[in-house]
Amino acid sequence: MSTNSTPTFQVLVIGAGFGGIGTGVALRRSGIENFLIIEKWHKVGGTWNANTYPGVAVDVPSPIYNFSFQQRSHWSRFFAPGKEIQRYAEEVVDRQGLRGKLRLGCGATEARFDEAADLWRVRTTDGDEITARFLVSAVGALEQPKPPAIPGIDGYSGRLMHTARWDHSYDYSGKRVAVIGTGATALQVIPQLAAKVEQLTVFQRTAIWVAPKLDFPMGALSNKALDFPPTQQAVRFLGNVAVNAFLGLGLALSNYPRLTSAVLGTGEAALKAYLFTQIRDPELRRALTPTYRLGCKRPSISNAYFRTYTQPHVELVTNPIEKFTTDGIATEDGTLREFDMVVTATGFQVMDKGATPPYPVYGCGGIELGEFWDQNKYQAYEGVSVPAFPNMFHIFGPYGYAPGSVIPLIEATAAHSARAIKETVRRGATRVEIRQEPHDEYFTRMYARNKNTYLFKQGCADSRTYYINYQGDGPAFRATTQAGMYWSNRHFPLDHYRYTTTRPAVLESVAHADTSRALIPHP
Ligand code: NAP
What we know:
Layout: E1 9-14, H1 18-29, E2 35-39, H2 47-50, H3 82-95, E3 102-104, E4 108-114, E5 119-124, E6 129-137, E7 159-162, E8 176-180, H4 184-194, E9 199-203, E10 210-211, H5 220-227, H6 229-252, H7 257-278, H8 282-287, E11 300-301, H9 305-308, E12 314-317, E13 321-324, E14 328-331, E15 336-338, E16 341-344, E17 361-362, H10 369-376, E18 392-394, H11 406-426, E19 431-434, H12 436-451, H13 454-457, H14 482-491, E20 497-500, H15 504-511, H16 515-518
Parallel strand pairs: 1-2, 1-6, 2-3, 4-17, 6-18, 7-16, 8-9, 8-16, 9-12, 10-11
Antiparallel strand pairs: 4-5, 5-6, 13-14, 14-15, 19-20
Helix pairs in contact: 1-11, 11-14
């Protein structure tokens, strides 16, 4: 390890998805220019760069799914395809002047806080060590694919692909294809595959609640209407409120169980009616009807998903998978089906040890963040900061995300991080750490609210939802409205943090660092 006690950068941001881009903009707005954003992929856009499976599209309307500071008025569709969202990420990088702050193809492999020098040392996939006074982890919550733990999977000789690692060199036209999983991703990929393959078999363990998708091409007229800033802002605001209600109302109403139950019950009845309009066969309809409450898992939207199962070459299998064989998949009823390709639409590791974040992080006293959370439960003040991990901020931390579009979350936690960093610099301090008391108060309050929601009280425990993690807790969510998340991340009392200075001389050298030199890409 290098012993250099002068950090190269004031801030290092890990990840150039929407989280890292939003953080870069928040830093610049706070007058902080000496920062670097590293990204393991060779393009920006995060999830929209990694997920290129057929049919990938945003399922939050595109006029809403954009940053408040750079709203885009020209979309091809109301729910734009993934590559258009990735292009939007590139546009934001260019217009917000972040291109020169990027180091692409550079992933973090370890972060370690140097207590003597008050800085973070981050090792990277290109063999470098980057030092920065402050660290912002913006790696995203749905980042690490979760392969299914099915016996024999390693011995399967056909093409095996997780949806988040799509291999476009493989032509699946006319092939026998299987999909494992029926979550929001499977919902998008299944109709696309069905259109091209000879035989499609979908292995469903748990059915998903599906609503119709009010999708349409954004013609010249609707895009023109969005060109008018008041219309654009109104659409974005009202749309965010609606998405927040669709995905999060049940959680936010945790103190009103009767009302929650009535809201969920009404939603369930409406979605069952939609399924009825799509599928005539009562047995198939029964198989596609969830047995858990709406909201236990993420619901989704599609106009094509249910009807795909009415095609003669598409089969829905609900008998549990027993194992992979060399050529296919055997189910517990003894049936063996052979496939040329198996798609695992099996989701991601969320609030999981080793995945959140996907690199070890060592704080004060050498404590490792994943170990700490494993032993003490996932926790972070406002979802952003953890005691004993000074100068570090999370964009997608535990109990940080009030369900809805992720953009308001990113803008809120990025603003929080930039505000705390700016205050530290203003005070001439080199270390900022969340105080134990406000942290514990937040965690205790959010934990209790979360446990009081329908997730734990109204039959979600058996739904295998990633909303509940391996510890039996729900740290992926904060059970408040997005308005609450927005407000408290921007207005938290600054003295909830402790600001200290151990090495004034070091601070001096960072404050006057030559940023143009610091930003020269590493060879
Ligand atoms: P997911 O919601 O976690 O769904 C994974 C699916 O795989 C589930 O149906 C699960 O069944 C099944 N599965 C997992 N392991 C299995 C096994 N061993 N055997 C059989 N089935 C297995 O993952 P996802 O569909 O990728 O969605 C993840 C998240 O990505 C969504 O919640 C959403 O937030 C996001 N997303 C967003 C968009 C967008 O447009 N914005 C699009 C797609 C996804 P069980 O339910 O029984 O576990």
